Amino acid sequence: SMRIRTQSKFQSINPKTMAMLINDNDTLKKYVPNTLKAVAGELSLFDKIQYHLLQAEQWLTDTFVSSDTMSRIRTYSDSTPLLHYCRIITAAEAMRHAVPQLDLILTPNGFGIVSNQNIAPASKDRIERLLLSLEKQRDDALAVILTMLPDAHHWTASEQFNYFAATMFPTLDIVHQLGFADHIWLRYQDTRAKLLTIEHRLETEFFSPELMDMLRTANALNKWDMTLDTAQYKRMYQRISAIEFSILRIGEYPIPSIIDIVNSIRLAKGNVFAEWKNSDTAKLFQDHGYKNKKESSGYFF
Fold first, then answer.
1. Confidence band of 146 (pLDDT split at 50, 70, 90)
2. Which of 109, 144, 229, 241 could form a disulfide with 168 if both were Cys (CB 3.0 to 4.6 A apart)?
3. CB 261, CB 243: distance < 8 Å
4. pTM of this prediction?
5. What is the pLDDT of residue 185?
6. Which is more confident, 12 or 225?
């Protein structure tokens, strides 16, 4: 069973000696739906789900935060927003995995946890709804921390930063913009895979990896002052990301609009967009601008 696997993975760890985001039942109770109560005289909820909490914190660290940044976050005071949201995520993710193994009953106040088999368990439907609400709580908090992490200790030097900065859309907002309201983190991973393909084509055929890298980094860090021509670079980011959004939704590359952008890059004065002008991609446009060949994958009638 999952429980045995989980415990064997962590059996050499004594959680009491580990610094954790959530270290005791009192802290946990602040972050778990207030309806979920253990019956008096039983193990506390913290003791029951401790290994799930460890696993959830590890997942949050490996996927989003990085060990370096997490070590610092654990030292923050309770009132720090980033610590608060990391705890929400950890508790929600731990409960999502623990719920199927807890004996949940439905009481007039919501869910309770009990070991007495004479009480009817909560229905499958209600459990499903609880799991969905835990996932939503987790994803809403993930959306928040991704806006805070660029300012957190050492985060921009991490692999996790690189994962999100690899496209022009480094936060979960893109999923909402595409019209989805549920399974936001799952959908983001799917959207990111599509964006990598789209951006690869846009940069090799049109905008150059050099310019796109610069725009992705400036956007992920929200630092546009790397260049004197802040306004022109920011506007270029907006134009290219709007094209990508359109491709994501419609599945077609609007070649005339793309060529229009390339021409405005070519004609920019002085050193503006030097990244593009000195790139191999620029050579494709050197003599006569873009030529649409029948055999090119970008050919449109």
1. very high
2. 241
3. yes
4. 0.86
5. 98
6. 225
Give the pLDDT confidence of 68-105 residue by residue, as tens digits: 999 999 999 999 999 999 999 999 999 999 998 888 87
> Token pair 């021409």 is at which residue?
263
Q: Token pair 């993930």 is at which residue? A: 142
Full 3-state SS string of the chain = CHHHHHHHHCCCCCHHHCCCCCCCHHHHHHHCCCCCEECCCCCCHHHHHHHHHHHHHHHHHHHHHCHHHHHHHCCCCCCCHHHHHHHHHHHHHHHHHHHHHCCEEEECCEEEECCCCCCCECCHHHHHHHHHHHHHHHHHHHHHHHHHHHHCCCHHHCHHHHHHCCCCCCCCHHHHHCCCCCCHHHHHHHHHHHHHHHHHHHHHHHHCHHHHHHHHHHHHHCCCCCCCCHHHHHHHHHHHHHHHHHHHHHCCCCHHHHHHHHHHHHCCCCCCCHHHHCCHHHHCCCCCCCCCCCCCCCCCC
Which residues neighbour 61 within 8 Å (Cβ) at sequence distance 6 or greater?
Answer: 67, 70
User: 214: which 2 tokens?
Assistant: 């610069």
Q: Which two tokens stand for residue 34?
A: 């207030």
Question: Do residues 141 and 95 touch, judged by C-beta distance below 8 A?
Answer: no
* pLDDT for res 39: 67
How many CB atoms sit inside 10 A of residue 43's CB? 14
Q: Would you state the pLDDT for residue 94?
A: 96
Query: To the nearest whole number, what is the mean pLDDT of the chain?
Result: 87
End-to-end CA distance of the chain: 57
Q: Would you say 69 and 158 are in contact if contact means Cβ atoms under 8 Å apart?
A: yes
**Residue whose C-alpha is closest to residue 81's, from 164, 32, 173, 148:** 148
Handedness of CA 170, 179, 242, 210 (dihedral sign): positive
Cα 141–Cα 71–Cα 158 angle in degrees, nearest 5: 75
pLDDT at 20 over 60: yes
